[in-house]
Amino acid sequence: MELNVFSPPFENLSSEQWDIVEQLIILLKPFEEITKNTSSTYSSISDVIPHVTTLSRYLQKEQLKQQTPQVDDLRQSLQDNLNFRPYIDAQIIYYQLYWTRHTKLFFYD
After folding, report:
1. Residue ranges of domains in the chain
2. pLDDT range class, residue 13, cuts 50, 70, 90
3. Closest Cα partner for 26 from 81, 77, 66?
4. Residue 102 and residue 6: Cα distance in Å, rounded?
5. Closest Cα to residue 32, out of 7, 8, 51, 10?
6. Which domain of life is it from (predicted)?
7. pTM of the model
8. Contact at 8 Å (CB) between 68 and 20?
9. N or C: which end of the chain has fewer CB within 10 A?
């Protein structure tokens, strides 16, 4: 007999709670994928801004706004945090990283 102490009692969830869990999985799936990509050894700082832009656009999709209030509150909070950029312009940084990378390739190879 195997005792799984850390396993939550999923059989006690109501159908409404299961709907919320399914919506959360859909909402957070791109975050998981991008986290894995940026955590890899082949990722660079120049990948960050396109990933943030992708996540921000994903969170603006109309179908994601048609969720339960709890999930929509989380979506809105994630979107607000992704759009908060104090004192920087992401597009300027992206172009600086792009040109720095290509300048190094041109002059040093």
Report:
1. 18-108
2. confident
3. 66
4. 50
5. 51
6. Eukaryota
7. 0.64
8. yes
9. N
DSSP calls for the chain: ----TT---GGG--HHHHHHHHHHHHHHHHHHHHHHHHTSTT--GGGHHHHHHHHHHHHT-HHHHSS-HHHHHHHHHHHHHHH--TT--HHHHHHHHHHHHHHHHHHH-
The tokens for 34 are 């991008």
**52-98 pLDDT tens trace:** 888 888 998 888 888 888 899 999 999 888 876 544 566 666 666 66
